[in-house]
């Protein structure tokens, strides 16, 4: 199988909240929007994100009211500390402060008002 792109689909209470969070703080741009739906892409070719409003009828019936929970968007960067400082300066609340794991991850997390967790990760040696 050849995978040409990847997109994660999130069902949330307020589409605009998650879309603006990714656009304003992570460099995404809106690729498409309609009533109750938005798709954002990243110029670096990072994973796309489709955002659906809870209850949207185009979703399969058993998925319409299931909010994205327990999903973490993980973005790998070159300098997690710099990104944490940038986001703090932009007024984003850091929900898990920068830490370094013994196996070589340096990471922190932020969370949008829909409860979508974004983890910023750097691999260190």
TrEMBL record:
PROSITE patterns cross-referenced by the UniProt entry: VOC (PS51819)
Superkingdom, taxonomy of origin: Bacteria
Stretches assigned to the VOC domain: 4-123
Name of protein: VOC family protein
Organism: Nocardia lasii
The organism's taxonomic lineage, starting at the top: Bacteria, Bacillati, Actinomycetota, Actinomycetes, Mycobacteriales
